[in-house]
């Protein structure tokens, strides 16, 4: 591979760029049916793995219309639980990369690992999301990103491996175009994935206010979680049953068990 074709990052551990196709968009209700991962080693070498997965549920026609994968294609394929150990081993010690991975692929993969009795451990991985770079500089979708940065059309959209390779091409194009982008994962992770220190989960559905863990959405917005544990535990159990990200549900479950995360040092008050 020529130096021009390499991802111009100084990697201190492997970077796994991946893409998922699924039965739908809900991490709780839907299942992975295709997964592709390209692992880039610190020396720049790339290794690709690809899996078709039996989701153990019918694939909606609306989803098949997007990625072209039917029930017949995956009926003889292993379930995710059967390949989870293999996928986990391939991702071991890797930071994660992809296109829109923070909103879709990582939550979907996390849920599949959880159902298989494993943990993706996102908190100890840095994340490089090509979409976040692109949206900061040129807000568009993956096909437009490939056209803009690489000068070609994305002819095989919504095939996991084709999307993964397109994403890696876009990442390389972004680094070629934006010379001021940091070249190390630690700085990139801080730049692209800055989080509000007062959020108790990634999506900000749970938030620290005046040193108290509170609900930050819906009819209970502003309610203290510790009060709900006593006065309305059914609401918290509704969150556990609902289509909420795993990190939100984990904080709520811990609260029901009497365990709370440490509050940030500074204080914040509700506005208005």
Write the SSE topology.
Elements: E1 15-22, E2 32-40, E3 46-52, H1 61-67, H2 71-74, H3 80-91, E4 95-98, H4 101-115, E5 127-129, H5 130-137, H6 142-150, H7 160-177, H8 185-192, E6 206-209, E7 212-215, H9 225-231, H10 233-241, H11 246-256
Parallel strand pairs: 1-4, 4-5
Antiparallel strand pairs: 1-2, 2-3, 6-7
Helix pairs in contact: 6-7, 9-10, 10-11
Characterization of this structure:
The protein is of the alpha/beta class and 272 residues long. It has two domains: 3-192, Nucleotidyltransferase, domain 5; 196-272, no CATH class. Helix content is 40%, strand content 14%. The strands form two sheets. It has a five-stranded mixed beta sheet, sandwiched between helices. It has a two-stranded antiparallel sheet with strand order 6-7. Helix 6 (142-150) crosses helix 7, helix 9 packs across helix 10 and helix 10 runs antiparallel to helix 11.
Give keywords.
272 residues, alpha/beta, Nucleotidyltransferase, domain 5, two-stranded antiparallel sheet, 7 strands, 40% helix
